[in-house]
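Worked example 3 (structure in, sequence out).
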């Protein structure tokens, strides 16, 4: 199976040479396969995206709240990435997000942060608009259960993260709580944006996504714990609420690399990494992400009157 082969590749370590990575020219096809986007695309009628987009761009939808929000968010997405702000790329992002809002209007519609997911996928799929739509659909509906109107899944996983930090890093947890900083403070952007720029730099986060698509969604928790461990010294040295908040909001990304995070995850075995990732397929596991647990209103596909039938 492709996941197992890619996992074997990414798990190899070359001492002094860094970790193996997925070549950029291979990533588009692998993300389509590993996220299930290729299968999802086949499950729908040929031309589904084009039909959906044509409907989404009609004047009758132009005043939808999702359209207005998308139009604002697209123009402020990853401002440092110049190629993303070409007229063609901006139009592609509009199209993908407009179409998705119509595909899944009741459960998801458009949720802020989806613009960042869309941008990262679009860049790494070489600006293939239709395939970006399918990868985004698969991530939102089948992998990460945060993008619902109630954000119930996100709230559940924030509590899970708090419990995990208290369980595996009690000193760190106590220090943060003493200063009045809870895990809720930083887990909203981390989890919703899948770590894009907060706190992992864009050129590094794609490697984390590669591993997440291979290892499964429980890796979200492993990444949170690994980041906190990598930056533990900085966190423990913060003695004021303002200093710690500044660190979480802007300082953690300094010098943070995918290799640091992945090394920390691998070195954690056989403690929290094995406990998280081995139990993640069980729906009643306390360490399973909301995307695979019995969390109501966690995303998924709702369809809509404007969406073409499968």
């Amino acid at each position: 199976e492709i996941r197992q082969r890619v996992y074997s590749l990414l798990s190899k370590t070359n001492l002094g040479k860094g970790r193996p990575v997925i070549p950029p020219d291979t990533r588009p096809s692998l993300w389509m396969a590993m996220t299930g986007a290729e299968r999802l695309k086949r499950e729908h009628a040929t031309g589904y995206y084009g039909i959906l987009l044509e409907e989404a761009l009609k004047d009758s939808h132009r005043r939808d709240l999702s359209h207005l929000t998308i139009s604002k968010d697209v123009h402020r997405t990853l401002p440092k990435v110049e190629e993303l702000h070409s007229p063609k790329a901006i139009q592609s992002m509009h199209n993908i997000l407009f179409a998705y809002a119509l595909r899944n209007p009741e459960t998801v519609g458009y949720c802020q942060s989806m613009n960042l997911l869309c941008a990262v996928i679009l860049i790494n799929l070489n600006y293939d608009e239709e395939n970006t739509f399918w990868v985004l659909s698969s991530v939102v509906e089948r992998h990460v259960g945060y993008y619902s109107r109630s954000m119930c899944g996100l709230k559940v996983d924030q509590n899970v993260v708090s419990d995990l930090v208290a369980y595996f890093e009690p000193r760190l947890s106590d220090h943060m709580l003493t200063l009045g900083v809870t895990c809720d403070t930083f887990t909203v952007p981390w989890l919703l944006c899948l770590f894009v720029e907060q706190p992992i730099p864009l050129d590094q986060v794609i490697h984390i996504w590669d591993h997440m698509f291979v290892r499964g969604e429980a890796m979200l928790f492993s990444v949170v714990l690994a980041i906190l461990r990598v930056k533990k010294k900085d966190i423990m040295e913060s003695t004021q609420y303002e200093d710690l908040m500044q660190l979480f909001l802007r300082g953690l990304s300094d010098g943070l690399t995918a290799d640091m995070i992945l090394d920390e995850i691998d070195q954690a075995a056989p403690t929290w990494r094995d406990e998280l990732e081995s139990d993640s397929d069980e729906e009643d596991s306390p360490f399973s992400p909301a995307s695979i647990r019995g969390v109501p209103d966690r995303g998924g596909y709702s369809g809509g009157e404007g969406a073409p039938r499968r």
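Notes: The CA atoms of residues 235 and 261 lie 16 Å apart. The mean pLDDT is 85.
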